[in-house]
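To: structure subgroup
Subject: Chain for Friday's discussion

All,

I'm putting the inputs and outputs inline so they're searchable in the archive.
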Amino acid sequence: MDNIIIFDTTLRDGEQSPGASMNAKQKVQIALQLEKLGVDIIEAGFAAASDGDFEAISQIASQTSTSKICSLSRAVENDIKKAGQSIARAKHKRIHTFIATSPIHMKYKLKMSSDEVVKRAVDAVKYARTFVDDVEFSLEDAGRSDMNFMKDIADAVIDAGASTINLPDTVGYRLPFEIYNMVEDMAKHINNRAIISLHNHNDLGLAVANSLSGIQAGARQVECTINGLGERAGNAALEEIVMALSVRHDFYNNFKTNINTKYISPTSRLVAQITGIQPQPNKAIVGKNAFSHESGIHQDGVLKHIETYEIMKPADVGVEQNNTIVLGKLSGKAAFKNKVLAMGFDTLSDSEIKQAFDRFKMLCDKRKVVHDDDIRFIISDEKLNEDKLYELKSVQISNCTSGLATATISIIHKDKIYSDACIGDGAIDAVFKAIDRVTKQKGSLVDYQVQAISEGKDALAKVICKVKFDDAKFNVIGHGLNIDTVLASARAYLGALNSYISMKNSASRNKHQV
């Protein structure tokens, strides 16, 4: 039975989704969850892209133990050097370098001849081998490249030391039978001298189908992302590839992965929570409605025998259904801990459980029913906001005339309480301006989202703020959770500010170290 290597690029290509930027702490949190999921290789980022990316990759490299940590680099010496330095502390490491090989890319983007491209590729692989033993080489836009040229450059980089050849359908152009033919031809030519990998984009909605077709033809590594995140229409979704191989083992009986599928749903929710990008409700495997039945005919069939309308068990991917423990205001800490462990949060410390339990009890005092999603987001919100340089103490809103409102804010900073007030165009605007005044930071709101975590008029409000502070060239994301949307908004804005300060301090430390 052949093992299919799962190469997850959520932290690199997934972050290229508009609005999906993450700070170092959030990336580490996702990386640790990916390792728990059983991902073989984590592409942690593009080290040369920024100081923040370099720092995030370095932290991931030092905190993971089983997954191989990879950094992407162009076929450029400085990129490769940065990549090698960023993963230096990883127990298992890889450099992934690439150059475009399609005629349109070589002519218009690179402005290089085919001979120049081959030389650049060979030099890159040789230099990368001075940092690591495991080098992956990608033929960017392989889906539109000439097959004979791809064979020539593959031969050259394999001779130079590349052990994986990646064939990306960079613009999501190819159909499944075309991917099959490409991989089959390359597999015969390479003849086990290197592993063939696929990186399929979803521009035509065929990324997963193309990946499965490539596996049939001889690919033994697939590059994918959680929830299908990625550039433009995204990448092949990890959860769909893995579950297709698992559910249809009658057809794919020669293939297996190392993925622990019960962690698929918790991982999906964590990525959605951090990036602020929720999967569509009818998204396969991880969508909110993936295991829901509204039709009376379907409901009747499922009640009589679940396999009438479900081809996989919800529990197989970590979806909790028919929970026997119902939590409320009379529940104790032991019952709460048992519940969160059953939900997959088995890496929480006792102090983290206590903090989550305290917030749970406060919520119980305000509403009759606390749903699983409420508990899940309470825990996630605590972890996302545990670095609290500025912490919200209180908010008071007074409505004025003509749509204006006054917000009075109290914030804890270094064990001292600071308060101020400000008038704004409505309560939320007044709150944000008051925070700016107290913290002496100037923020500009780029995006603002409010989501109801569960059902009912007393549902928790999940607020996501994307903010640009002062003269920074980057945006930061903050998360807030509360029954009161104004309080949730204040927490989200402060979360973004704390993240901004943390990133700025990290960049400053890196410059001084250099």
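Points worth raising on Friday:
DSSP finds 16 helices and 16 strands in the chain.
The first strand starts at residue 2 and ends at 3.

D.
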